[in-house]
């Protein structure tokens, strides 16, 4: 499909980024997956080429680029290396919090490092006892003179091992009712005493994307690390989550398209009963169904990208795209693996990795059930 949301400069950028991936990601990717981490050098290389936070103003080390450049980076990484999806998390989900809610001094301190790769970002909302129900978080940050003292535990934190700066959702007023009123966002820097990284979690997919538990034990941070206004953290997250959901949909859509491409090629060259398996009616119908769903997803996702660029609110439609496209990409992964037969179950075939990697997309960034709650409430 011809995508009219992009212009010539975006196409040039995409082509340059594809060359970067070919040269600086693909030759190393299996090793990263094996080691369960994307090395810091990758982040620094991305930064030096302008691929981290391109949206930032030049004075903060960015290129002042429009959202489409971020989309291109997200799509190209999702196509070939889903374990690097810590990058869209850094670029498109966390850095925008700092851009929107930090004061000038905080921006000057942190944003140039986000753009260069010297500061890798993570966001820590989820706790062992609170995932979907974010209001119930228990981590506290109690003001003490010029500091906040944090106590609590977070889990499933992407970039949790690599991160230099973690945006922590915590209760600055644990007694506030309803619970969301007492939530604030506080930045915690690597090596702050009392900030302890727990286990790197062993996931079924996205192996090179590090995911960790984090602990805060009498962790004292300067009060100046508060992002925005005390008690407004929940509001900030609710405002930013629709964007995060679109970012997930963008990655899933690109991955689904690539899975189809790979499967078209496989079914063209693989023969059974004396002919390419693509010539069986069942295979053709299955491919037709997959291609149709992918086309529907593409139209919807591009429409939402365009609406974000126009500054429109996509709270409901972002939730629709997140659940539908991530479900669709999982169906595509299942069907494409099936069309590969036994080869699809072998690690050396790309579809095997996609099948594992895409699974989580229906769970994180708000589970698909929660997305349906968001949509359902808007209909009442
Ligand atoms: C690989 C990975 C990376 C992640 N990265 C991050 C990160 O960087 N930062 C971060 O803060 N978190 C992160 N998460 C956490 C993620 O956002 C949560 O796992 C998710 O929000 C679900 O929360 P939970 O796991 O506690 O499940 P629960 O909230 O316990 O949900 C369990 C089940 O119940 C369903 N459910 C819950 N409430 C309702 C309801 N009201 N109606 C219907 N069904 C409901 C859910 O949909 C789900 O199916 C990550 C998770 C994973 C797996």
Automatic annotation (TrEMBL):
GO terms for biological process: fatty acid beta-oxidation using acyl-CoA dehydrogenase. Residues 8-118 form the Acyl-CoA dehydrogenase/oxidase N-terminal domain. InterPro entries: Acyl-CoA_dehydrogenase, Acyl-CoA_DH_CS, Acyl-CoA_Oxase/DH_mid-dom, Acyl-CoA_Oxase/DH_mid-dom_sf, AcylCo_DH-like_C, AcylCo_DH/oxidase_C, AcylCoA_DH/ox_N, AcylCoA_DH/ox_N_sf. Its cofactor is FAD. Pathway: Siderophore biosynthesis; mycobactin biosynthesis. Keywords: FAD, Flavoprotein, Oxidoreductase. Residues 231-379 form the Acyl-CoA dehydrogenase/oxidase C-terminal domain. GO terms for molecular function: acyl-CoA dehydrogenase activity; flavin adenine dinucleotide binding. Pfam families: Acyl-CoA_dh_1, Acyl-CoA_dh_M, Acyl-CoA_dh_N. GO terms for cellular component: cytoplasm. The keyword Transmembrane helix does not apply. Residues 122-219 form the Acyl-CoA oxidase/dehydrogenase middle domain. Belongs to the acyl-CoA dehydrogenase family. Catalyzes the dehydrogenation at the alpha-beta position of ACP-bound acyl chains. This results in the introduction of a double bond in the lipidic chain, which is further transferred to the epsilon-amino group of lysine residue in the mycobactin core by MbtK. This is Acyl-[acyl-carrier-protein] dehydrogenase MbtN. It comes from Metallumcola ferriviriculae.
């Amino acid at each position: 499909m011809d995508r009219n949301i992009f212009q010539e400069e975006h196409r040039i950028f995409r082509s340059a980024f594809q060359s970067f991936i070919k040269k600086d990601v693909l030759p190393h990717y299996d090793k990263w997956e094996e080691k369960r981490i994307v090395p810091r050098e990758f982040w620094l290389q991305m930064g030096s080429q302008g691929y981290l936070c391109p949206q930032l103003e030049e004075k903060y080390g960015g290129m002042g680029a429009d959202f489409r450049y971020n989309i291109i980076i997200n799509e190209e990484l999702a196509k070939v290396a889903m374990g690097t999806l810590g990058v869209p998390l850094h670029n498109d989900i966390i850095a925008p919090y700092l851009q929107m809610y930090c004061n000038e001094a905080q921006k000057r301190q942190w944003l140039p490092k986000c753009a260069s790769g010297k500061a890798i970002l993570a966001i820590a909302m989820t706790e062992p006892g609170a995932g979907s129900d974010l209001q119930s978080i228990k981590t506290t940050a109690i003001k003490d003179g010029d500091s906040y003292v944090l106590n609590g535990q977070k889990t499933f934190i992407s970039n949790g091992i690599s991160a230099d700066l973690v945006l922590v959702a915590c209760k600055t007023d644990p007694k506030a009712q309803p619970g969301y009123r007492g939530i604030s966002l506080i930045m915690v820097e690597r090596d702050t005493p009392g900030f302890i990284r727990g286990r790197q979690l062993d996931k079924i997919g996205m192996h090179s994307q590090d995911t960790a538990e984090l602990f805060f034990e009498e962790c004292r941070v300067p009060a100046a690390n508060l992002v925005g206004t005390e008690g407004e953290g929940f509001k900030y997250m609710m405002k930013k989550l629709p964007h995060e959901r679109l970012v997930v949909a963008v990655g899933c859509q690109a991955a689904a398209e690539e899975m189809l491409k790979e499967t078209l090629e496989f079914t063209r060259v693989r023969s059974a009963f004396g002919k390419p398996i693509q010539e069986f009616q069942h295979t053709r119908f299955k491919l037709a169904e997959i291609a149709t769903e992918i086309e529907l997803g593409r139209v919807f996702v591009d429409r939402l990208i365009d609406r974000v660029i126009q500054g429109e609110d996509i709270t409901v439609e972002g939730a629709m795209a997140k659940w539908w496209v991530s479900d669709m990409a999982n169906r595509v992964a299942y069907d494409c693996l099936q069309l590969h037969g036994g080869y699809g179950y072998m690690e050396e075939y790309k579809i095997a990795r996609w099948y594992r990697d895409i699974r989580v997309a229906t769970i994180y960034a708000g589970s698909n059930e929660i997305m349906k709650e968001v949509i359902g409430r808007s209909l009442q």
